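Researcher: We're reviewing a set of sequences before deciding which ones to prioritize for further study. For each one, I'd like a predicted 3D structure that I can look through quickly. This is Glycogen [starch] synthase. If possible, include the structure in token form so it fits the rest of the review sheet.
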Amino acid sequence: MLRGRSLSVTSLSGLPRWEVEELPVEDLLLFEVAWEVTNKVGGIYTVIQTKAKTTADEWGDNYFLIGPYFEHNMKTQVERCEPINDAIRRAVDTMNKHGCQVYFGRWLIEGSPYVVLFDIGSSAWNLDRWKGDLWEACSVGIPYHDREANDMLIFGSLTAWFLKEVTDHADGKHVISQFHEWQAGTGLILSRARKLPIATIFTTHATLLGRYLCAANIDFYNHLDKFDIDKEAGERQIYHRYCMERASVHCAHVFTTVSEITAIEAEHMLKRKPDVVTPNGLSVKKFSAVHEFQNLHATYKARIQDFVRGHFYGHLDFDLEKTLFLFIAGRYEFSNKGADIFLEALSRLNFLLRMHKSDVTVVVFFIMPAKTNNFNVETLKGQAVRKQLWDIAHSVKEKFGKKLYDALLRGEIPDMNNILDRDDVTVMKRAIFSTQRQSLPPVTTHNMIDDSTDPILSTIRRIGLFNNRTDRVKVILHPEFLSSTSPLLPMDYEEFVRGCHLGVFPSYYEPWGYTPAECTVMGIPSVTTNLSGFGCFMQEHVADPTAYGIYIVDRRFQSPDDSCNQLTQFLYGFCKQSRRQRIIQRNRTERLSDLLDWRYLGRYYQHARYLTLSRAFPDKFHMEPTSPPTGLRSLVLRAVMWKMKRMSATMRKRRLKGIG
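Model: Here's the predicted structure for Glycogen [starch] synthase, in token form for your review sheet.
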């Protein structure tokens, strides 16, 4: 049975603030710089997009995002307008007059924040000069063949130039600039080298070297203090990028990371302990009725069932009402994302379900984009056969229903042997014959370019999960992002997640982990690990995460085989749950969404901004050298102490009045 204490964090907004004064936002300008502003590449886009409304509500017209210009993104996501702020308008005009192409407008997302976008290509003629500037600032050279690093240098140089123009005309307003990841770090380095009056924050969402080392199947977290950092970066030909990242970290007034696990990593990889941990949040939208998200689950589950009917035509000998849909999604990083341990656990789960003669079937989707050249013909045929059968069944049903209705009107009980025409029987027989299939249902929906060397397909061949009739675990690799316009599975990612029963993300390297967080907000249970920022966050904030549908696999303090066994037991236990237990668990999972709301987690960003102001402008801003509490227990304890102080003060007043 599911168990666990009741958890409600809806009152978090009523907790007392940390002992810092409110920022005078009307006298400040806040900039956030990232390569993923209006430009979706990875998780940073989600961070900025979902946080925009909360930040814009707090800062109003004094909040600006800086990113790269791409024509397609500009046309579809940005509404151009003229800057209201005089300093911004002057900076844009000055740079445009000097041959740069700077675009200003509103990003068409919640909060409609202002964006400043730089056309990288139009300023490439300055590349050599800016390489010299970077060398003079921090002795970091960028090779000509690394196009990405060269683009980041241009982007950072334009950012520093823009901030210089803004501060020259800021009319006494103090400027805060937060830089996300090494791609934006050059702007921070040059701003500090030129002594611009700016309070700077650098946020790393993952270290460069950490991602590379984990992908190489190295026991990363148990050897953090033993790596020769310069040697490892040099061997992977990313030394210049690593130097850019490390210089950004050490130039910033305040250094932040997205999780405690990444803070430990950054302290060893980048040689600076983060000042603040700023967990990633989401923009949480609550339904007016609790059961609404359960209804959405049923609706989208039916659409996934339709796809499964087509994909497994001819082998559909399992009950779809007793079928569970599991999925893993994200970048195609086989080891980092935990696809290796997940596949091994699925093999063991298949054995357990068959051994115990379970009537539950598990269909597992791998949503991980890879190189393909076309749709799999068998997959397309399956959807065509399903649609044809549906049309035939619908046509026969109409005829059957009309004849039945007419017979009942005449007061007769129809002869079921004669109610169907011979033609109808012939059509149905032909339809049945069309579902005959000589081959097994495919394990991939697309033709893979590197089929023989693909890690997922190679592992599937090794463990033998070929979608046989006797297999209780079926596997489908969908090597493209989901889209509502797809001819195979016409669903957006959010719709697909809501229709599944469990998200499985047993990552080895996951600085935060938006995929399980998104599952939680949608009320879908998920599997994560104690090496992901999200998993550590939930362990700290929730006394019994499993009771709330957050299964945390220990990948740090036990062997890979033990971790795989633990994951298998989680999956098998989930398969044994009744439908009612799963409904109760989804309700519990959805109740955790308040913990991940930016209205709560945004406080960590507020703390970082005040801290950087106190360090950059100590004469104007002062802050005690304390950190905000990192856990819910700390927050509750602080709230209790605050209430006790209030009660004591009230009692003293009552005694003074003689009514105590």
